[in-house]
Amino acid sequence: MKLLKTSKEIGEVISDCLDKYNNVSFAVAWIKDNNIYQELLEHKDKIQFSTVGIDFAGTDINVLNDFKYSDNVKIYKGKYTFHPKIYVFYNITRYTAIIGSANLTNGGMFNNDECAVLLTKEDGVLLKDILKILEEYFDKAKIITSDIINEYSKEYQVIQDNSNSIVKRLEPIKHKINEAPYINLKWEEVSKSIRNFEDIKDHVKMLENIQEIFRNISTKRIKFESKELVEERNKIIGNFVRDNENNNIYRVFGGLFNAGKAKGIFVNKNGEYTETLKKIGEALETIDILTKDTFKKIIHKSIVRNFLNSILNIKGCNLTTATRLLTVKRPDLFICINNGSNNKDSNKFKGNSKIINDIFKISFNSSNKDTLIKNYIDLLGKIYNTDYFKYPLIQNDDISNYRVAFLDRYFQALKNKKR
């Protein structure tokens, strides 16, 4: 038995269990769209008899649409409020059950003060007893039909529109009104702004070139520390300028051309950093290459955390170094956090951490490594919950492919506009 003492801890365990187990059953009062819910949808085939409440229109309408006429997920609407929070993940020989206060909402999985008990087979609680409760809820629940969705949508819309409703009064105001447009990040608005940048073709070319480098490293099984990759590593870190050419296209997205020690590591002029480069290469291998199958498929936060930790443990490498590497390898998922530079190009290539602080209220000024890692992962979670990120892939559209990386340029435009 284990006590899960925070909403984030509960969410992390649920996320981990979704990957590890073959079956999941649950009963929750409310479900809202968030990272954990998206992971649940990715494992939709694992869901067994599960029940969702709709009291106070607290469950998002899209959840009902996602499970319309489902044989495995039904809704419960009774005389009294449906209020359980039970999640069970199980295989033939083992199980993990989480029973506590957390709904499958942003608050329940990320923000609220929540608490839950984690049970396994070793605790002496029989899986069949827990499943029996879930089956009883499921038997009383209703299949989600089009008629039910139509009726529910009326109540749902009233709740959304009425600022004096119960739900609205219970939800804390997380952002000031003048910050809301940036937090919401609408696809049409942001992508249109990005397409208007004069140098956007250079940015696309840079990311395409580096994507090809990572594909070659993978398919040809070349070691990242190899001497033959000096030019490629210079492109990856944004230090690539040919002799007699004014070629600065690699210097965006946190390029390390002024990074001193970090730049020296990747250049590895005298071979003194070969072992360090080997560690960096091994860390990069944990981040899947961008393909049709991996596009926008969120990489588990434990992998991101381990990657950041590995890079930040290297003397001379900071958060800019680590997030630059993430961004150029997976521009669909990551953004570089940089403070800019004082070189001749400083007016063209400005840092973005200040504007990100202003928009998301996530600080990158801390010198504590663990805090920096946590704040970066929190930032990604907020980005992944925006319309801009969730918007469907547009075929043959580079902005669509590299959407998170390009937020760097969008944020800079906002910063310059504010001046």
TrEMBL record:
Matching SUPFAM superfamilies: Phospholipase D/nuclease (SSF56024)
CDD domains in the record: PLDc_Bfil_DEXD_like
Pfam families xrefs: PLDc_2
Secretion signal, residue range per the UniProt entry: none
A single BP term in Gene Ontology: phosphorus metabolic process
Molecular function terms from GO: catalytic activity
Occurrences of domain PLD phosphodiesterase (ranges): 78-108
Alphabetized InterPro entries for the sequence: PLD-like_dom, PLipase_D/transphosphatidylase
Annotated protein name in UniProt: Phospholipase D family protein
The species this protein was found in: Candidatus Mucispirillum faecigallinarum
